[in-house]
């Protein structure tokens, strides 16, 4: 009863608080954005201690607090989001104190993350006669941490006899990281051989004149340095010298040592391998993808992407299922989410099937088909002739969220206050952080709360977080908000929902870096053009301030894609994401996916842009489920037909 009472009291306060109090946090956030912190805190105080702490949290994140204020907040609100940044900002404030015990206590159980913090801790260790601890921290920090020029000077005052090998290690790390300004500051601290290597790498990174001479001047012991090779590779790539770039990366790839840091090469390795694949050079593409030198683990996706690509090329271009199978097995062992696991298992099944191992293939397809929220899980289900999982139609509500374990959390209260104040971006930050600590039922209840307060965007993000942990919450994972109407659309509601889910995740105020806006991520120029055709008034602000108009314009533009490409979701979604000229070109290059003799799964994998390829997969997989949910019934999975349009 206590939980319910607290929750009801808070929700009642949200609905009945005086107008001045309801507006207080909104005004406080505006003042904080302008950097007027005393007035911002005073305004927030009108709405209560949590509102004040929201503004205090922002002030401290802006680096505007004292060491005591950081210590106090980190102690009181340790469960709030963004603690790493607060710790980092607190380090800089702490550097201004001379209390050695206080500094050492601040770093209890954690290492400094900034040069300023490290210098402060080293000074505290030296003051308390802990010289070994000071030396260990100096060696760690000098090689690994970013330092402002003044912090570098302070470090070298504390340790003027820093071993030259530490300077060399720091310089090498800065060069690999592309911090050329920091690298230049290190030149006077290393010997002439390292200076020559660094000068060549810096010139390559800056695209400076005279690089050939600087490369020639690199001493013999460093001519084969992997960092220099990567700098030359980067220079060639930025000059669009792709053939020369491929030759260089292949020459470095017989072992990981030749690459130095294989992960730094990985993204463009995949790009070049796909380029070779499109050019019909399957064997060379395979060699490039397979010789990546990466190890599984660490959460990086590069290993998984390159293992998949190597397996795909081996199976579909080189007709070598045994070789492909090795890569798909590696992929399966390196991933956790349903999207990635179903991809590994589907292609493992394809390779086993091609190798004549039918029973093992069936097992792989069956496991993949259990993951029907994912593109390749649906393809596996279709391959086996299975119906869509009835559980994906489940709309049952969880137990009342107002009696959830999280209801007394200050993180929840902050999120709800921010929703009321109109700052949904910040509200999302708090509520998603709260979701990270919830079990399955807590996730269900939190997503249900978001739906009930009119935030399908936040509900979907909570459901996505749940899906990454293996919990599918159909009602929140596939919301159908009233912003996407049931009638009057020039395309099916299922398609409009699938596109909006991918484009904005149902955030009516979303804006992309490219300038696309609103629910259906309409570009202003496109919106103006479509509005003129429809004879409706238009201003750019409509795209984020008027969800109905955004859907009107976005669905009309989507209808243009359907009119040109027919019902093929592969083409329609590609056109909506990348512009209609791109799928027109890909039809010429890879064949028309609507034709019976074109393998639609291969066609999607050949899309050159990672974003568009992923976009087609995510839109099509959710379209299948939206169609079933809107009808209220399941049938055989028919993803290939959706992709091909027939």
Describe the structure.
Mean pLDDT is 95; it is low at 4-8. The protein has 646 residues and is mainly α. The chain is 66% helix and 0% strand. The two termini are 56 Å apart. This is Lytic transglycosylase. Belongs to the transglycosylase Slt family. Residues 1-21 form the signal peptide. Keywords: Signal.
What structural class do helix, strand and pairing data support?
A: mainly alpha
* Strand tally: 0
Mean pLDDT: 95
Low-confidence stretches: 4-8
Major beta sheet summary: none
What proportion of the residues form beta strands (DSSP E)? under 5%
Distance between the termini: 56 Å
Count of DSSP helices? 37
Helix coverage percent: 55-70%
What would you call the shape?
Answer: globular
Q: What is the gyration radius calculated from CA atoms?
A: 28 Å
């Amino acid at each position: 009863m206590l939980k319910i009472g607290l929750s009801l009291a808070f929700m009642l306060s949200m609905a009945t608080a005086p107008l001045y109090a309801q507006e207080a946090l909104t005004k406080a956030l505006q003042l904080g954005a302008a950097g007027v912190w005393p007035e911002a805190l005073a305004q927030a105080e009108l709405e209560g201690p949590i509102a004040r702490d929201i503004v205090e949290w922002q002030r401290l994140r802006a680096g505007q607090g004292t060491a005591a204020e950081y210590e106090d907040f980190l102690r009181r609100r340790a469960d709030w989001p963004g603690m790493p940044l607060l710790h980092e900002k607190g380090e800089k404030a702490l550097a201004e104190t001379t209390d050695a015990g206080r500094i050492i206590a601040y770093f209890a159980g954690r290492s400094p993350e900034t040069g300023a913090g490290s210098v402060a801790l080293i000074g505290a260790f030296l003051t308390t006669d802990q010289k070994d601890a000071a030396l260990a921290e100096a060696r760690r920090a000098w090689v690994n941490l970013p330092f402002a020029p003044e912090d570098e000077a302070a470090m070298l005052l504390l340790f003027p006899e820093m071993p030259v090998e530490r300077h060399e290690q720091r310089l090498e790390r800065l060069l690999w990281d592309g911090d050329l300004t920091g690298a230049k500051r290190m030149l006077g601290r290393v010997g002439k051989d390292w200076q020559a290597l660094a000068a060549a790498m810096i010139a390559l990174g800056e695209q400076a004149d005279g690089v050939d001479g600087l490369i020639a001047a690199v001493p013999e012991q460093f001519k084969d340095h992997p960092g220099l090779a990567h700098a030359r590779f980067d220079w060639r790539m930025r000059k669009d010298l792709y053939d020369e770039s491929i030759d260089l990366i292949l020459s470095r790839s017989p072992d990981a040592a030749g690459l130095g840091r294989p992960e730094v090469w990985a993204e463009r390795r995949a790009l070049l391998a796909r380029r070779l694949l499109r050019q019909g050079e399957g064997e060379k593409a395979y060699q490039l993808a397979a010789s990546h030198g990466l190890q599984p683990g660490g959460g990086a996706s590069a290993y998984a992407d390159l293992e998949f690509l190597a397996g795909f090329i081996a199976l579909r271009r080189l007709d070598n299922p045994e070789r492909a199978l090795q890569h798909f097995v590696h992929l399966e062992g390196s991933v956790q989410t349903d999207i990635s696991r179903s991809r590994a298992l589907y292609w493992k099944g394809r390779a086993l099937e091609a190798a004549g191992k039918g029973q093992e293939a069936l097992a792989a397809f069956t496991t993949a088909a259990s993951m029907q929220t994912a593109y390749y899980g649906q393809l596996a289900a279709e391959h086996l002739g299975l119906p869509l999982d009835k559980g994906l139609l489940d709309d049952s509500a969880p137990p009342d969220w107002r009696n959830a374990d999280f209801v007394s959390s200050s993180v929840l209260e902050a999120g709800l206050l921010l929703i009321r104040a109109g700052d949904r971006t910040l509200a999302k930050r708090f509520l998603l952080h709260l979701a990270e600590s919830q079990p399955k039922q807590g996730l269900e209840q939190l997503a249900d709360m978001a739906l009930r307060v009119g935030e399908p965007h936040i509900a979907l993000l909570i459901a996505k977080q749940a899906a990454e942990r293996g919990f599918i919450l159909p009602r929140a994972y596939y919301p159908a908000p009233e912003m996407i109407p049931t009638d009057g659309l020039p395309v099916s509601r299922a398609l409009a929902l699938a596109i909006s889910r991918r484009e904005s995740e149902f955030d009516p105020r979303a804006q992309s870096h490219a300038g696309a806006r609103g629910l259906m991520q309409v570009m202003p120029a496109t919106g103006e053009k479509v509005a003129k055709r429809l004879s409706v008034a238009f201003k750019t602000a409509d795209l984020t301030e008027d969800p109905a108009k955004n859907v009107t314009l976005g669905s009309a533009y989507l209808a243009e894609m359907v009119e040109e490409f027919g019902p093929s979701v592969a083409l329609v979604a590609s056109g909506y994401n990348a512009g209609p000229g791109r799928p027109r070109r890909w039809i010429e290059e890879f064949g028309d996916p609507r034709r019976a003799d074109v393998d639609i799964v291969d066609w999607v994998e050949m899309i050159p842009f990672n974003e568009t390829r992923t976009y087609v997969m995510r839109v099509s997989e959710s379209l299948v489920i939206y169609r079933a949910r809107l009808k209220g019934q399941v049938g055989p999975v028919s993803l290939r037909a959706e992709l091909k349009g027939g």
